């Protein structure tokens, strides 16, 4: 009976740490996309405001939308990064 609680506790700790790592990575990604939207010289002021509001109010989903749809391509970019 004790072994079950020890195993369950370790497994819970493991999944808790994985969840914490995912949350931290999403938060860092969100901050990076927010900073990029604010400082992006390829966007007009209206577009910047729109993307900042999307990233702020939709959190991780807004950051993903900006990452895939909002970042303008640099001239001569190969699209690999």
Fold and architecture overview:
The chain has 81 residues and is mainly alpha-helical. The protein has a domain at 25-73. The chain is built from two helices and no strands. The chain has helices at residues 2-39, 45-70. Helix 1 crosses helix 2. The longest helix has 38 residues, at 2-39. The radius of gyration is 19 Å and the shape is elongated. The model has no long low-confidence stretch (mean pLDDT 84).
Rg computed from alpha carbons, rounded to a whole number of angstroms? 19 Å
Overall form: elongated
State the secondary-structure class.
mainly alpha
Number of helices: 2
What is the rounded distance between the termini? Answer: 52 Å
């Amino acid at each position: 009976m004790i072994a079950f609680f020890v195993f369950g506790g370790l497994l819970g700790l493991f999944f808790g740490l994985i969840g914490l790592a995912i949350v931290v990575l999403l938060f860092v990604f969100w901050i990076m996309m927010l900073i990029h939207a604010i400082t992006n010289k390829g966007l007009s002021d209206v577009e910047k405001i729109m993307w900042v509001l999307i990233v702020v109010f939709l959190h991780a989903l807004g950051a993903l939308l900006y990452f895939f749809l909002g970042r303008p391509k640099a001239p001569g970019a190969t699209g690999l990064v």
